[in-house]
């Protein structure tokens, strides 16, 4: 069996009055992430981890932020497509482990809901999706609540 790992990292700016999509769900928040798509930083980091594991470049390479087709796009679409790209090449997803770095709101109460949405998009069980959160201890752009970042690692395998 062949096993590969990949890592992904993404950052989005936060702005007052925007919807805040994170891990495929809309979080109750006063600020939301800004991007070409729905700016779901967690899904983008997972996509990059999966693409990296398969040595398939990154999310922006496949879904350019200059392409009108992806404007305002629900990022769940990207994760489903990335999983399909892997399947086409014989890969299946093993597990993903992610960290969101964000001052507020608290992510913990929403993690089970995120896992429920994300797992089927990757054709894995919720047990194989780990999501964690941390503040940036009020330091830097995350600390000033100007932005949010997420990192992810993914394991993929094929027989
Ligand atoms: N947006 C966040 C940030 C953190 N958490 C949870 O709180 C714990 C403490 O955060 P520290 O940054 O002070 O270590 C953290 O371990 C998470 O469990 C959260 O839910 N949402
Ligand atoms: C997802 C894409 C495409 O809509 O745009 P954004 O939502 O801006 O996200 P980012 O993580 O900056 O880059 C990938 C993009 O190509």
Describe this structure as you would to a colleague.
This is 2-C-methyl-D-erythritol 2,4-cyclodiphosphate synthase. A divalent metal cation binds at residues 10, 12, 44. Homotrimer. With 159 residues, the protein is an alpha+beta fold. The strands form 2 sheets. Strands 4-1-7-5-6 form a 5-stranded mixed β-sheet. α1 packs parallel to α3 (76-88). The mean pLDDT is 98. The longest helix is centred in the first third of the chain and has 13 residues, at 41-53. The protein has helices at residues 41-53, 59-62, 76-88, 111-121, 140-143; strands at 2-16, 20-22, 25-27, 31-34, 92-101, 129-134, 147-158. The structure holds the ligand Nc1ccn([C@@H]2O[C@H](COP(=O)(O)O)[C@@H](O)[C@H]2O)c(=O)n1 and 2C-methyl-D-erythritol 2,4-cyclodiphosphate (CDI). The site of 2C-methyl-D-erythritol 2,4-cyclodiphosphate has 13 residues, from α2. The ligand Nc1ccn([C@@H]2O[C@H](COP(=O)(O)O)[C@@H](O)[C@H]2O)c(=O)n1 is lined by residues 102, 104, 106-108, 133-135.
